[in-house]
Amino acid sequence: MSDQTARLGLPFILPAQAQKHVTHNEALQRLDAIVHLAISGEGNTPPSGPDDGACHLVAASPTGEWAGHAGALALFQDGYWQFITPVAGWSAWFVSENALRIFDGSAWIFPLPGPDLELLTLGINASADATNRLSVSAPATLLNNAGSGHQLKINKATAGDTASLLYQTGWSGRAEMGLSGSDSFAIKTSPDGASWHEAVKITPEGAVTMPSRPLARAAAPAGSALISGPANRGFGTLHVGEGGFTLGAAVTGGGNRLVFPASGYYAVSLTVTATAAGSYWAALEKNGSENCVTLSGIATGGNPLTHSASAISYFSAGDYARLAFSGTATYAFGYGQTEMTAMLL
């Protein structure tokens, strides 16, 4: 018969044993150490001034009083160290890690979840909450295939709900892509997280629009005027004005400048309807100094002549366009007469 228990190594009180209380007290001390086991720390060197009852895990290269006891539990009791060999299946609370570990026979490991684990929240190096039930704080996140393809699914309940990816700077939204409040796929951007601009929209039927793309069709107020150049005139009506196009400062000859909202290359066109007795030209003038598009005309024989031209020109945000004239002609102004268009490419 063994003189100790098989699992916990508690000493038996043997027949005719003297000082039975010593054996009994030793068993109680051992139970006190390993039941609800709490490990204060792990190391190779005994701590100075340990608390009575403190339990430490001896590391791989122990020294001093711990020499020769690698992997054992060191229990400080009554002024000296006792060493306990852990058994596979023991669990312990690691105080410094604030975590539970299990001894597998060779190492203390974190318990693995079951195969059908269901969690209300999960935080990976982060705190999850009732809204962000999965929260990850990491340099990168990898979603890999299992032999072929891989899909990431984001499902919403109804068409009016949102299923999207939101990109933030300092927890403030800057871009969003997905199904936001409809079943049309959209890409939106924001300068401040409060005001949003829909850059691209794709309907369920596949039609693609760019609602915030700078686009303008501008004309002077309807009517006719005899103009002898050099002269300038602006615009009075934005028949189409998207993406931030506005009418700016007044032009001396009438109307207002057309102010460009964003920097980039624009496709611009100019249409002129005029009646003239001699040669003339009209141009779309950039910032009062550069002609982007120029239309030249000759005597029309008393009949109005409509002609158009287009070009690609670079405009910076805040640049403006106006009409410039040379020679003498009577111009028909208004929609479909003398007008311009501009579109960011």
TrEMBL record:
Entry-linked Pfam families: DUF2793 (PF10983)
Recorded superkingdom: Bacteria
Protein name, per record: DUF2793 domain-containing protein
InterPro entries per UniProt: DUF2793 (IPR021251)
Source organism of the structure: Martelella radicis
